[in-house]
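question for whoever is on the cluster today: can someone run the full assembly for these? four chains, 202 residues total. i dont have access anymore since they changed the login thing
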Amino acid sequence: MTRQALTMLGKLIRIGRAERGLTAQELADRAGISRTTLSSIEKGAPGPEIGTVFEVVSLVGLRLFESDERMLQVYNFRLDEKLTLLPKSVRHAVKEVDDDF
Amino acid sequence: MTRQALTMLGKLIRIGRAERGLTAQELADRAGISRTTLSSIEKGAPGPEIGTVFEVVSLVGLRLFESDERMLQVYNFRLDEKLTLLPKSVRHAVKEVDDDF
DNA sequence: GCTTTATGACCAATCTAATGAACAAAACTA
DNA sequence: TAGTTTTGTTCATTAGATTGGTCATAAAGC
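^ ran it for u. tokens below:
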């Protein structure tokens, strides 16, 4: 499933790049990476750094979270609220949890 | 914006992990990575490999594309169709494109 | 309160990705 | 078709992440 998401993301990037009329070299330059790395990303390789992938995603206009920049800030804030309400560390009872599956 | 998406994803993972009652060590073990790396991921660092991040995302039950596994396959197929319709390479006219911004 | 456990941070050694160059093949244009 | 550009791929080197260990702090449970 991870693999599938990755290849899908790669295809989305490839399509987005084509729609914007960018060559691989051009997009790589704008993202500050090599064409080789961009090729890996579009291929859906698991290796590339998530930061560079997200940068490329942003450059081709993809929205991973289906929300725009402003929404990200707001949502981020709400996540912080949720985080403060949560216990700071996960603690196990004496008996092990058995939610393995 | 890339940075923001990364920190947000990290928080989502952290929350998801807490909701599932997993310690950092446990989640790291399941993902096959070290606790140090998981820490980086939850911190929203750009360095970690996208493959491992997606694996963690999947382990805590997050849905990046707001779709389940079956939807991924279908969507993937439709992306392939779109890809075949697209020109195989982006070609520039003699004159440079001037969509720089 | 005390004890135990989880987390955050840092480190050197190791492992792996990123790079840039080069080449071949494919694809677009004239 | 000929010629040019884009892309796919490989490879050695460079750069940077991952690891496993340890310590200190903090938080949860008793």
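summary bc i know u wont read the tokens: Residues 95-101 of chain B have pLDDT under 50 and may be disordered. Residues 19 and 64 of chain B are 17 Å apart (CA to CA).
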